[in-house]
Design a protein that fits this description.
The protein is built from two helices and no strands. It is mainly alpha-helical. The mean pLDDT is 89. InterPro entries: DUF7697.
Length: 46
């Protein structure tokens, strides 16, 4: 959570608004991260 808020602040977003939106954004971020990990694991297994 701290890293996400720091990233939002670095992008110029209000930390309070970012904190309110994080629960809505989190599932999409997790799916994206999981997809990247799967792709990386697939590349390494070849």
């Amino acid at each position: 959570m701290t890293a996400a808020l720091a990233m939002a602040e670095a992008l110029g977003l209000n930390r309070l608004i970012a904190a309110e939106l994080l629960p809505l954004i989190e599932p999409f971020a997790v799916r994206g991260i999981n997809a990247q990990v799967r792709a990386q694991n697939h590349d390494e297994s070849i």
